[in-house]
Design goal:
Its main location: membrane. The protein has about 525 residues and is of the alpha/beta class. Helices cover about 35% and strands about 25% of the residues. It is globular and about 80 Å long.
């Protein structure tokens, strides 16, 4: 993710807190979701709230926004106690929460969305002119590229997000909570959002920023507070922030234990060989490479370099123009994903919700769906086998769920990703392709996924990993191939004296290596 905010931040605020949450405790059916949590927010700061899924971040913010009521504790606004019993009370106090799933009415105009529930009136009639004028003034202050009369459903996700921000500003927001605001945005849209956040901060608005993307936290946060298992662990000022300290606070172990993979210096035999693979749309130039048993091969490059497209060609998900795939020296005829699966090749796509999971189906069925046919007896599902497979997968992958009948849709991002991994490992693959394996998951789930990958490699599974996170590529790869504009342009292999570093990857990815060679 590109980040463009570069500015100086004070290490310690000198003003009175705009928000204090003290001793917040919340229980659901006797189980503590939050235990004596404290949070202090100052005007004009971006305060990152971090922690694994299930750490209590959402529960704490829903208490602040009035969706839940705390069992114990106190909330103060500008030093004055405030009992928040519903969302209306929170909004009246200047607290607004922008959820990851945006809350807009697509068939209404921007103005109508901004004033929904708080319409201006002149006598018995709506004062549409006054509302539109105020809406336009707020949109101008945000630098929006749409008008107050625009139908919200015609806007992009990034623009709809601006509508929610505009609504908060119209309500004179003092504290704005943003939950994973860049999850559905492009790099350019994210950069524009960062500019808006910088302006809001300069206007004195306090922003509570929730994100799993470390690079965003480093770029934006004045301070960070960390929750773990429903408890407040501590806060860091900007000068105290480091990957080592954050990982230790969030997962309770050191950075050295985060990437568990021991780099393979003596790779096994070639399992997968790809020769001259290209696509019909001419986005991928003929590409050739080998993948060894027990090896994690990283495929790096900038967004749009062709990494996902190459993976999909190998798997038979897209039509190829040329190319051959060999498994253990035997040529395969892969025209569809079913052909790849039958050969023992698995593929975890980058978009688990749209391309990977069956969201309305149970966790049990999602895990077993690739093996239902082979386990069936006379066309009848072998449910004892399905139950055994699913139960073992939940235990082996530490998938956190209430029961196996829960829908995939209702699981956290990390648990959804582990569910998808469990499905593909059920086919006992010889080759496993992972496209952005830890995108949108918290740091604890990342560590779990890295553990699973390391164990698979130790068992001899050949892994091709596509990732946009350079730290992930460097930390988990035995060898790295770099793509640029549809071509494989470089290879890094520590065993051959080509050390794997972020700088060298970026040299290949941007073409700087060719410039320096001139």
């Amino acid at each position: 993710m590109a980040t463009s905010i570069e500015t100086s931040f004070p290490d310690a605020p000198s003003t009175t807190p705009v928000l204090e949450m003290q001793g917040i405790t919340k229980r659901f059916h006797g189980v503590s979701a939050l235990q004596n949590v404290n949070l202090t927010i100052y005007p004009g700061e971006v305060h990152a709230l971090m922690g694994e899924n299930g750490a209590g971040k959402s529960t704490l913010m829903k208490i602040l926004a009035g969706a839940y009521i705390a069992d114990e504790g106190e909330i103060r606004i500008n030093g004055q106690p405030l009992k928040i019993t519903d969302p209306a009370t929170a909004r009246k106090a200047g607290i607004n929460l922008i959820y990851q799933e945006l809350n807009v009415a697509p068939n209404l105009t921007v103005t109508e969305n901004m004033f929904m529930g708080s319409e201006l009136r002149r006598g018995q009639f709506l004062d549409r002119k006054a509302m539109q004028l105020e809406a336009e003034q707020v949109l101008d202050s945000l630098g929006a590229n749409f008008t107050a009369q625009t139908i919200v459903g015609t806007l992009s996700i990034a623009e709809q997000q601006q509508v929610e921000i505009a609504r908060a500003l119209k309500d004179k927001s003092r504290v704005l909570v943003m939950d994973e605001p860049t999850a559905a945005l492009s790099d350019r849209e994210s950069d524009h959002l960062f500019e808006v956040i910088r302006k809001l901060r300069s206007d004195g608005i306090a922003i509570i920023y929730i994100s799993h993307r470390m690079e965003e936290i480093y770029a934006l946060a004045d301070r960070i507070s960390v929750l773990r298992d429903g408890q407040y662990i501590g806060s860091l000022t900007r000068s105290e922030i480091s990957p080592q300290r954050l990982v230790q606070m969030m997962v309770g172990r050191s950075m050295q234990d985060f990437y568990e993979h021991q780099r393979q210096m003596n790779p096994g035999p070639v399992v997968l060989e790809v020769r001259n693979m290209s696509d019909a749309r001419k986005k991928i130039e003929p590409a050739s490479f080998e993948l060894h048993a027990g090896e994690i091969l990283g495929l790096a490059g900038l967004v749009g370099a062709g990494r996902t497209e190459l993976s999909r060609l190998i798997f038979g998900a897209d039509r190829k123009a040329s190319g051959e795939v060999f498994l253990n020296g035997k040529k395969l005829e892969i025209n569809t994903p079913s052909d790849a699966i039958a050969a023992g090749i698995g593929y975890v796509p980058e978009d688990r919700k749209d391309q990977g999971l069956f969201l309305e189906m149970s966790a049990r069925k999602n895990i077993a769906i690739n093996t239902l046919k082979q386990d069936a007896k006379g066309g009848i599902v072998n449910w004892p086998s399905v139950n055994r497979l699913s139960t073992e997968a939940v235990e082996n992958f530490n998938i956190r769920l209430a029961n196996l009948e829960i829908r995939a849709l209702d699981l956290s991002g990390g648990n959804q990703q582990k569910l998808l991994l469990a499905r593909w490992l059920a086919i006992k693959p010889r080759v496993l392709m992972l496209d952005e394996p830890t995108r949108g998951v918290d740091i604890g789930a990342k560590s779990e996924i890295y553990r699973i990958m390391s164990e698979l490699a130790a068992q001899g599974v050949a892994i091709l990993m596509v990732s946009s996170e350079l730290s992930e590529i460097v930390g988990m790869s035995d060898r790295v191939l770099v793509m640029r504009e549809g071509q494989l342009v470089g290879e890094l292999d520590g065993s051959l004296g080509k050390e794997i570093t972020q700088e060298k990857i970026m040299h290949y990815a941007t073409g700087a290596s060719e410039v320096s060679a001139l």
